[in-house]
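Let us work through a complete example step by step.
Step 1: write down the sequence.
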Amino acid sequence: MANITRTITITGKVLRILPPKEVEVGDETKKVVDLIIADEFDYKRVSCWDEKAELVIHGDIKAGDVLRIENARIPDAARAGSGKRVNAGKYTRITGISANIAPLNRAPAQRLTVLAVARPEHGRVCIAGIGGNGEWIRPQGVYEHDVFCAGAGAGTGGANFKNLCISKIYVDAWRGRRPRKEDRFFVYADGVERELSEGEKRDFLERNVDGSVDEVFKRGRSLGLIKPRILHVYEEPAGKKAGKGKGYEQYIRFNFKDSSGRTYRRWSCRCDEFYKTWNELKKKHRWTYGLRMLRYLRKNDTYLAVGLTYTDYGIGRLEYGAYPMIVGVHIMPQM
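Step 2: predict the structure and record it as tokens.
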């Protein structure tokens, strides 16, 4: 039986525009831009191809626009899966309309207490935290413009995500490659709702701290929170290979001993906020900033949010099946 092309009409508000990409189709290279479009109940990920992609690239379609998309094609993979993805190509008609839509107003939201906002890598940002049900969540597909969104999160510098703040987010199952237990597809963030008080921060960290690194990574998780003794914190040059395409001059590494007494060395730190603190101290105390930082970390209670990279690098004999790193640094005054 011949395949029947199914089409759909979508009306919704553009919540996010993902970065343009190029896709090889046979002997051709085609431009594609994905839009996250939602009505009050649900969202669609609309892949705009060729001339439709140009409309987005040239600003004819912008975040915040309300669109009616007619004759969008449902790909075969989407029919068998979630049905969230559709294609807007040559025969699709896209029209801007005037309509009052409260996107995802009736969709379930998560309240994510953020424990990690990493430095951008190739435009992407690793976000991680704990949801209202107590489970770790790592939204996938978060870009720089999703984090630093002007007007979002009053009093938080226009951020959708900030450490030890509660963000209202919408996520879905992650259907990409190399899934980890905590991975979710990032649909949209509705800003920071509030920052935890100092007392709430300490209570939250103590309530969610894990006993050791092994307790996190050897029990099926790829994210956790530890309270170690910091032995050494230092920076090293990124190097030509490590720094290619990232634009960073240095990387910060930690040596520490966790609560089990085991020592871990040379763990890479990706916490964006900690890099800012480190560089400010470096400007003020050019020759002694490393010792000052170590003293500061030891003087206070230091919590590290730790995570694992993807697990299919093809490198054997990795203890946890992947490379561990520090994705969030949280420092609280000792009681």
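Step 3: interpret the result. The chain is about 20% helix and 40% strand.
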